Fold this protein.
Amino acid sequence: MELTLVDLSVARGGVPVLAGVSLSLAPGQALVLRGPNGSGKTTLLRTIAGLQPALSGQVTGAEDRIAYAGHADGLKAMLSVRENLTFWAAVFGMRDVEQAMQAFALLPLADRLAGTLSAGQKRRLGLARLLVTGRPIWVLDEPTVSLDADAVALFAGAVRAHLAAGGMALIATHIDLGLDAAVLDVTPYRVALNGVGFGSSDEAFL
Ligand SMILES: Nc1ncnc2c1ncn2[C@@H]1O[C@H](COP(=O)(O)OP(=O)(O)OP(=O)(O)O)[C@@H](O)[C@H]1O
């Protein structure tokens, strides 16, 4: 089943950011979102993932099918790498955490507390979580932040395997992942602010 956006408009802090975004993603396909800092990529991804409501328009094919990885890794600092993945696997009804650790070179760190990992290791663990969700649509916001070249290659390999298995991926990134993916620049969808500033915030925790 495809993921489809029809005429989607999104806002942050009550201020419209992007308007009229339409796209569709079929099984096996990836789409890379591009656009300057502050252009609205995160806002669009959060809306697609159901973390905030759209201003208008529709998202179809997303219900209970999205695994979202945003800027925060959302790890439990006092659980080990293996325990973090086991926790998430249980939440999503999956079991195989060993394969997820292997895919992101985490096996040597399996018993380390997540809170003691380096930034790049934490990011690898956050991305390994995608594999234990069993969800077909990966919505990823700057997934390669903190990753070294080897880890970026591991990540790109995981995305390729996910697509080959019929998964989908929507990725906001400023770097070239070497994926066979379409690219959507959000710039043409930006809403002109016409003097309206960003005075408010739409989240309790920033
Ligand atoms: N919590 C918030 N409350 C209000 N406005 C916000 C909030 N977070 C971001 N914004 C504003 O919303 C606009 C869109 O931000 P967004 O994070 O979606 O852009 P982005 O394209 O993902 O940027 P980047 O490439 O820097 O990650 C920006 O002008 C930003 O300053």
